[in-house]
Structures are given as C-alpha cells and as structure tokens.
Amino acid sequence: MASHFRELEVWQVGMVLAKAVYVLVADFPKEERYGLSSQLQRAAVSIPSNIAEGNARATTRDYARFVSQACGSAAELQTQLLLAGDLGLGDHLQIEHALELCERVNKMLRRLHQALSAKLDPGSPVPGPRSRS
Questions:
Q1: DSSP E strands: which ranges in the chain?
Q2: Cβ–Cβ under 8 Å, residues 60 and 120
Q3: How far apart are CA 67 and CA 34, in angstroms?
Q4: Distance between CA atoms of 48 and 95, rounded to whole angstroms?
Q5: What is the pLDDT of residues 8-25, one digit of tens each?
Q6: Which 8-state DSSP code applies to residue 127?
Q7: Inter-residue contact 21 to 13 (CB < 8 Å)
Q8: What element of type H or E holds 23?
Q9: Contact predicate 12/52, CB 8 Å
C-alpha cells in the first residue's frame, strides 16, 4: 500500500474530479451558488479529503471507515451531477466527464475498501494486496 495519500491513484483521480466539478459549477447561475453548486463542491472535495484523512489514521479499521465515507460522497456526487443535468445546469459534456470520473473513483474506492477489509479479517475470501505477488 502507498505510504502517503498523494501516492494513491484513487486520491489523484479524486482531485481531478474535484477540479472538474469546480470548473463545471463556475458556469452555473448565480442563484445556485448556495444551492446545488455548493453541494456539488462539498461532495467532490469530500472524496479525496476522506481518502487523505483515512490514509493518515493509525489503524486499518479507521482507514476503511474513511474510504467508506468517500464511497458515500461519490454516490452523493453522482446523484447531484445527474440532477444538475436534468435541470439543464452546466455544460452537458462537463457533466458527463465528471460522471465518468466519479464512476472510476467509485470503482477504485470499492477495491481499496475490499483490500482494507481483507486485512482486518484474515479469513476473508477477498484477496488482499499481498496475495498478488
């Protein structure tokens, strides 16, 4: 496992996703500044933030919990992006790009969570990161 969160590909893609969301909402109407724009930004920033905080924690159990929270933020973000698209807010291509990044991050988070969970339960059928050697 990476020793620092900045080395994690999932954190790096999460940062790209957060930046994409900030670019997307920059074109939203001003009246959305404290509405959906703010919600999108908070959910997007929460993903790499939770990965970083979990990675910095002392126990694997804490790390897994923060990765689980990042998964929740990714689902929240996907919902908000779909709503923005349905409401005609923002550029359709930027929304699609953000949704693709969000799906990519979500898959990576699920794999990371499985690996962390496997470390917690040695009898688990889920392979851990060292089983690939």
A1: none
A2: yes
A3: 27
A4: 19
A5: 999 999 999 999 999 999
A6: P
A7: no
A8: helix 9-25
A9: no
Q: 109: closest CA among 11, 39, 3, 41?
A: 11
pLDDT above 90 for 130: no
- Give mean pLDDT, residues 115-128: 67
Distances (CA, A) of 17 to 57, 58, 91, 101, 105: 23, 27, 15, 6, 8
Residue 125 CA to chain centroid, in angstroms? 25
The answer to whether residue 125 scores a pLDDT higher than 90 is no
The Cβ-side half-sphere exposure at 73, using a 13 Å CA radius, reads 24
Q: Quick one: DSSP state of residue 6?
A: G
pLDDT digits 0-9 by tens, 29-81: 999 888 999 999 999 999 999 999 999 998 999 999 999 999 999 999 999 99
Backbone Cα Rg of the chain: 16
Structure tokens at 119: 């470390």
Nearest to 40 by CA among 102, 103, 105: 102
Identify whether the C-beta of residue 71 lies closer than 8 Å to the C-beta of residue 50. Answer: no
